[in-house]
Each structure stands twice: as C-alpha cells, then as structure tokens.
Amino acid sequence: MRRRPGIGGLQNAAAARDQYRLLGENVAKLRTDLMKEQLATFRSQLEDFARKHKNDIRKNPAFRSQFHEMCAKVGVDPLASNKGFWAELLGIGDFYYELGVQIVDICLATRPHNGGLISLEELCKLLGQRRKGAREAVSQDDCLRAISKLKVLGNGFEVISLGKKKLVRSVPTELNKDHNEILELAQGQGYVTVDEVQRRLSWSSGRATDALETLLEEGLAMIDDGHKDGKRRYWFPCVSSVSSYTATDTI
Amino acid sequence: MQTLGEFKLPHFFNYPPYFTLQPVKDTREKQIQLWKELILDYCRTQKIFVVGLDEDFLLFSNPVIERSLSHEAREAFLSALVSEGRAEWLDKSHKRCLILWHRIQDWADLIISFVKDNGLEDSVMTVEEMRSGVESRGTELHGMDRTILMRALKHLEHKGKLVIFKGTSADDEGIKFSL
C-alpha cells in the first residue's frame, strides 16, 4: 500500500520526530544525572580514601606513588593547585613545592662540579641528607614529580633518560644525540677515551673529539691525563659522582 | 674514605681528573678552590709550614688511584693561595712555599693573647723561647715556623707593641714587649 502525500502525513511525521527528540533528551538527561551521581560518589570515595590514608600518603613514598598513579588514571591531579580540597586535606602541594625549592638549591650548589647535570640517584641522596630532620621519606618518584612542577617556571629543568639511568639537567645546554650516547657509554666506568668512543660507537675521530670537546666546554666533563697508559680520559661527574666513586672501580 | 692519620681526605682526592689541571675556566676555578681548602686544612692540622714543590708532600700524589699532580698543577694551586695572602713563595724559582693557614695578622693576634695570658706585658724573652719554651707549650705558637714568627713579630714591632733586639748569642733575637 502506498502512503498518500498530504498535510496530515507531514504533521504526523513532525509529531513523531518531536516525540523521539523528547525521549532522546530524557534519556540523555538521565544518563548525565547518573554520571554526575557516579562522579560525586567517586569523588567522595576518593576523598574518604585520601582522608583515611592521609598518613600513609604523607609518610610512605611507595604508597604516595601509587596514590598518584590512581589519581592520574581517573584524571585527578592533586597537585594542580595549592589551594582547594586536596592541598587542605593532604598538604601535598606544599610538600612538592618544598621539594622543588630544595632540588633547585642542590642543582645550583653542585653545578660548579657537575656542569648542571646530576643523576637522579645522586640528587635523591643529597635531598635525603638535606631533609634528615623531615618526617617524610623522599623517593625518586617524588623527585620527578617535583621537577615536573618546576616546568611552570620555564624550561630550566628537564629529566633526561640515559639507558636505565635518569639525569636531571638544570642548565639550558642542549644535549644532542651524540652527547647522550657518550654519556651512556661513560656510565660503565665513569669515563671514556677518544679511542673508546670511536670504537664502541663506530664514529670518526673528528666526530668523537668534537662531541667530547663540547662536553668539556660545557663543564660536564673533566680531563684526566694522569693514567700510566698516557691516554686522556674524559670523566663525567654527572654519571659517576665524586662521592659515589671509589678507587677500587679502576683497579 | 681514606685517612692520613687523623686527617680525613675529601672525596675529590679519589677522583682522578682532579689531579689534572682542567683546561676549562669554570671547572678549573672550582678545582683550584677545592685544592686550596685541602692544602690549608691539611697543613693546619699537621702543622706544616713549608711545602716544597719537588718534595714528597703527601697531598701531591694519591697512590690508591695512581695519580699525582704535575709540577704545573702544584704551582697553580700554591700560586692561588699566594694571591690570596694565604701563602708566600720563599724563592724566586717557586720551589718552596710558606703556607699561612693563619695570616700574619692572625699570628700577631695569637702572640698578643699569649703574652697577655702569661702576664708578659712588659717582660723580655727570646724568639726561641717563644717557639719552644715552657710557656708556649700547648699553644699554637709552640713549634711554629721561625720565618712566620719573625714576620708576625716585625708586624707587631711596626705597631709599637714590642721591640726586637739582638741578643747575646748571634743566632737568637730578644723581644721586649710593651703592651
């Protein structure tokens, strides 16, 4: 059967569309309400959780890191603002700002020695020594978090990954790929020679010398002409700090 | 960490590049700063007054890491001390260096308090007595270098606190205090 066109048919069609739209809106509203309710529940649960485990979050670095991970998964950033609920509840913002200030301090103080590049390990160790009096232990994860907060101050601080190791850079030096490869190579013994760089990375001697000279100029390397084989060694305090270096490493 | 007797060596003493004079200015300045402090500290605790550049001075080499300072580096570190008034070359060829862990002025102050503590304000004593006599035993003046002592005494003579005069024996001088 063929439907006849006519004014009644058109009106019917329009009415049906309206009905559908209304229904759709209702469903959407229902869903939004449900979602809002769920979110509210979730938030209160999270708050409850935070309140309940306040001390753990403050004092246990591993727990703190897991809490951060959980927050990140659900899109909550407890560090987003120093004001507001999270800061008041946990005082967690202040904790990281304090860490940030101490990290800047340590980076500046060790800069003459390491050229502004320090291993995360060393940084954490110094931070620990400095905060001896404080109640909370500080993990590498906390350091990284505090450093990420320092980014708002400009591009001064950056974390560089070298193989398994992480370095924190506090000078605006741009390290290119060649430099990174040398630093990675140096992690083994704390130093490299021109020969070694050429051999291990299959570079020309010019390329090796160039990169090493740049690192030297930037204050990231120190030369050592004292070995009895007469070969110049380039040491990198940022990968093998003076304090962690023990003489037995070379013997 | 290594120790030399009671003396605790700093970490950098075991880090080989610190035994090579660094070519880059900033790095070298830091290096020189560390060595200056070490030399002064060590000399003060061990009561060493004169360092010979070509002599066996314990700090100039570290057998543990098989490194020793070149002549150039030794001279650079000591010259840095000289330029700060914390050392003086004893000869033109820079072979021997007088280390002033107390500046001459500070030595002079020590002498003044020694004199006051012992009630010698207007007495007479010889230079040797001051260095090795009973009164100075236990003070920093005991066993101090004669050259530095004479310099400090001259400094005080200049200020009218004492008079140095030739004694009866040819190799010793007398001091008359007038505080």
Task: Provide an overview of this structure.
The complex is a heterodimer of chains A (251) and B (179). Chain A is mainly alpha-helical. Among the domains of chain A are: 77-172, Winged helix-like DNA-binding domain superfamily/Winged helix DNA-binding domain (Arc Repressor Mutant, subunit A, Orthogonal Bundle), CATH 1.10.10; 174-251, Winged helix-like DNA-binding domain superfamily/Winged helix DNA-binding domain (Arc Repressor Mutant, subunit A). Chain A has helices at residues 7-52, 54-59, 61-73, 85-90, 92-114, 120-130, 140-150, 177-186, 194-201, 205-217, and strands at residues 117-119, 158-162, 165-169, 191-192, 222-224, 233-235. In chain A, the strands form 2 sheets. A 3-stranded antiparallel sheet of chain A has the order 1-3-2, with helices on both faces. Chain A is elongated, with a radius of gyration of 29 Å. Chain B is of the alpha+beta class and 179 residues long. Chain B folds into 2 domains: 3-99, Orthogonal Bundle (Arc Repressor Mutant, subunit A); 104-177, Arc Repressor Mutant, subunit A, CATH 1.10.10. Chain B has helices spanning 25-46, 71-83, 104-117, 127-132, 146-158; strands at 3-4, 7-8, 50-52, 61-62, 67-68, 87-89, 96-99, 124-126, 162-166, 173-177. Chain B is elongated, with a radius of gyration of 19 Å. The termini of chain B are far apart. Chain A binds chain B through residues 112-113, 115, 191, 216-217, 219, 222-228, 233, 235, 237, 242-243, 245-247, 250, and chain B through 11-12, 14-20, 22-24, 26-27, 29-31, 64-68. Chain A: Keywords: Protein transport, Transport. Chain A: InterPro entries: ESCRT-2_cplx_Snf8, Snf8/Vps36, WH-like_DNA-bd_sf, WH_DNA-bd_sf. Chain A: Belongs to the SNF8 family. Chain A: Component of the endosomal sorting complex required for transport II (ESCRT-II), which is required for multivesicular body (MVB) formation and sorting of endosomal cargo proteins into MVBs.
